[in-house]
Design goal:
- With 666 residues, the chain is an alpha/beta fold.
- It folds into three domains: 226 residues, P-loop containing nucleotide triphosphate hydrolases (Rossmann fold, 3-Layer(aba) Sandwich), CATH 3.40.50; 175 residues, no CATH class; 226 residues, no CATH class.
- It contains 19 helices and 23 strands.
- Strands 13, 16, 17, 18, 19, 20 and 21 form a seven-stranded mixed β-sheet that branches. A six-stranded mixed β-sheet has the order 5-6-7-3-8-9, with helices on both faces.
- A hairpin with a 2-residue loop joins β8 and β9.
- α2 runs parallel beside α4, α8 runs antiparallel to α15 and α15 runs parallel beside α19.
- It is rod-shaped, with a radius of gyration of 45 Å.
- The two termini are 29 Å apart.
Length: 666
């Protein structure tokens, strides 16, 4: 049984200039059932009394004691407060859905209540497709769906014609035999005809003006259904959010597209950083001189009387060679021949110099990296495709003429001799390197072993005459050389099986040594460029994401403003703050799904376009098209966090305001 006890209630509305007394020391009891009418002039406090009983309005002075839980109090609003994007049965089922029942069962119970109020045939209609009288009965069906013990009706017939008013009052009358129905109305005729008790607000009090004996059988189920103790299901939460957003879905997608593009670009940067190094390593491995490396030892030299030091690069010392050999026993060391064959010089074809200089580099040729023949002698060379573009007449079989004059200084037995060498070689192109060059670097590659065997047989005449025995260039480059020998250009040539692995080990374990060749230099330079560029891009993307987050939050706040009345209706069913905030999760899931889908599509599109560009540049298609599981999880977490913050922050602000005030009438 439901009873309402009001003790010494006082209510005053104040503004800057005046105070309006609504109730003054009001004490009264209602219950446990019956249709009780409350009459009074506009502004006398009829609706304020219902708002106080429903706890939509804060009690300032006095006491209100109700012996049923708040969930057992239902309200019928004057303008019915139905949700337009839900149909009739969904509007009636809404309190059950918010209480945790699945939508199928809730709609089934809603249809039972719709049949009770005589509009079961309208269950599938949209709200804007039914009349005002039918909307009143939908509101009534919704008010009894949770089996309440008290119904507060705020002028339920105020906007209806006479016929529909009578139908609604008769339904309330039937309901009041088992429940307490407090009805605020201006229609005195209907009130006196149907109400069991009538009170008028007079002199800030409720004065009983009418009473008649009615049947009261307040024996209704008081057991709360199990679903009423649960929070709204995620599936139903998504349904409510989607039914609101479906007419605004285009705006939501467009607003989320900016964020999605940022996420797609972010994953492109991650993709490039992860796979770009693999591409660069592959380019390095495809260089024809991949196994031929330059090895340099760095020595720190302190400057006397100066707080500074210098770094000097020299050939590998015996100790450095031993250290490297412990890491890779297959390394073979040779003297550098750059003094004899300048690494960057002019060459002649048919007695004419090429317009631009070219690179001349040693290699240990591998047939797998060459189109054509592998060099068989010192005069056989390989060129890369970049050199082919220098002259239309260059190709396999073309003869390149190279000349160089140099002074070979020999220090022996405390004396120094100089030999002037004139090197003149005709180099025949026998093959073209299969290298993938990403910078323009026309090059000629000679077989180091064949060239060394040719050069070492050259006799140094002045040195031989000075020391009275034959001294050849091989002697000068071996036991007559030291680590600080300018003839070897202060570096050592090494033949290495896997320079990439050796380079990583040297960088980690032997910082005093440096390893390089064409492929490694290109790979390291571009890798540094990619890393620097990626850092700048990531910072830029993060800034854009922050801006996107606030724009998305503003957009969602505008959506919530459109949905403000709907949120107020949710609160009218006495859901707690936690359950109210949980209502935002449906929208979070929808926005997360949109961002994940659009980000993935944009990522696939950008990766495909990137690979097309790489293909036109004859580079490896290293951009991964498919998001692996780790990428997808990271994308989901970022999208979820973005949507969660953008949705719940404005929702919390809406809850903090007097949201329920939008449903108050006076």
């Amino acid at each position: 049984m439901a009873n309402i006890e009001i003790k010494k209630l006082s209510l005053v509305y104040t503004n800057k200039n005046s105070a309006h007394v609504v109730f003054d020391n009001l004490s009264i009891n209602f219950g446990p059932c019956g249709l009780i009418g409350i009459l009074g002039e506009s502004g006398s406090g009829k609706s304020s009394l219902l708002n106080l009983l429903a706890k939509y309005q804060k009690l300032e002075k006095g006491e209100i004691n109700i012996d049923v839980p708040q969930q057992k109090i239902s309200v019928i609003f004057q303008d019915f407060n139905l949700i337009n994007h839900l149909n009739v049965e969904e509007n009636v089922a809404l309190p059950l859905i918010l209480s945790g029942m699945n939508r199928i069962d809730a709609v089934a119970l809603a249809n039972v209540k719709l049949n009770e109020v005589g509009i079961g045939q309208l269950a599938k209609r949209q709200i804007d497709q039914i009349s005002g009288g039918q909307q009143a009965r939908v509101s009534l069906a919704r008010s009894i769906i949770l089996n309440p013990q008290i119904i507060l009706a705020d002028e339920p017939t105020g906007s209806l014609d006479r016929s529909n008013s009578i139908k609604v009052i008769e339904l309330l009358k039937n309901i009041s035999h088992k429940r307490l129905v407090l009805m605020v109305t201006h229609d005195e005729e209907l009130a006196y005809h149907y109400c069991s008790q009538i009170y008028k607000i007079f002199n800030h009090k409720l004065v009983k003006t009418h009473e008649k004996c009615d049947v009261c059988n307040a024996d209704i189920e008081k057991n709360d259904p199990e679903f009423a103790k649960k929070k709204i299901r995620l599936k139903e939460n998504i349904f409510l959010s989607f039914s609101f957003l479906k007419k605004r879905l285009r705006k939501v997608v467009l607003m989320s597209l900016f964020c999605s593009l940022c996420f797609a670009l972010l994953f492109m940067v991650i993709n490039i950083n992860q796979n770009g190094r693999k591409m660069l390593d592959e380019i390095a491995e495809n260089q024809v001189d991949y196994n031929c490396v330059n090895l340099v030892e760095k020595r720190i030299i302190d400057v006397p009387n100066q707080d500074m030091s210098l770094v000097k690069k020299v050939c590998l010392s015996p100790m450095a060679k031993r250290q490297l050999s412990q890491i890779d026993k297959s390394i073979v060391y040779y003297p550098c021949l750059d003094s004899f064959l300048k690494p960057y010089t002019n060459i002649q074809i048919d007695n004419q110099y090429l317009k631009d200089k070219i690179f001349i580099q040693p290699c240990f040729p591998d047939q797998s990296r060459i189109v054509g023949n592998i060099p068989q002698k010192y005069s056989d060379v390989i060129i890369n495709e970049n050199l082919l573009t220098q002259d239309a007449n260059i190709g396999i079989g073309t003869v390149i003429h190279y000349e160089n004059d140099l002074v070979v200084k020999t220090n022996y037995l405390s004396s120094t001799t100089n030999d002037i060498l004139h090197i003149s070689i005709d180099l025949k192109i026998v093959g073209i390197a299969k290298t993938q060059n990403i910078i323009s670097r026309p090059s000629v590659y000679y077989d180091y072993i064949a060239m060394y065997n040719f050069l070492e047989s050259i006799k140094l005449n002045n040195a031989s005459k000075q020391y009275a025995y034959n001294i050849f260039l091989s002697d000068r480059l071996s036991y007559l050389s030291d680590e600080d020998d300018s003839l070897t250009c202060f570096k050592t040539i090494g033949k290495v099986n896997d320079p990439l692995i050796l380079s990583k080990i040297i960088n980690e374990q032997l910082p005093n040594l440096k390893i390089s060749n064409t492929g490694l230099d290109i790979a390291n330079s571009i890798d540094d460029l990619i890393s620097s560029f990626s850092q700048i891009i990531v910072v830029f993307i993060i800034l854009i994401l922050i801006c996107s987050f606030f724009l998305e939050m503003i957009f969602i706040r505008n959506l919530y403003d459109e949905k403000r009345k709907e949120f107020a209706i949710y609160l009218s069913f006495h859901i707690k703050r936690k359950e109210f905030m949980n209502l935002g999760m449906g929208q979070v899931v929808i926005i997360t799904s949109i961002i994940v889908i659009t980000s993935s599509l944009l990522f696939f599109l950008l990766s495909s376009l990137g690979n097309i560009i790489l293909g036109k540049m004859n580079l490896p298609l290293f951009l991964t098209i498919n998001l692996n599981l780790l990428y997808f999880i990271l994308l989901f977490l970022l999208s979820f966090g973005f949507a969660l913050g953008a949705s719940l922050i404005p929702l919390n602000k809406i809850y903090s305001g007097e949201l329920i005030s939008s449903l108050r009438n006076e």
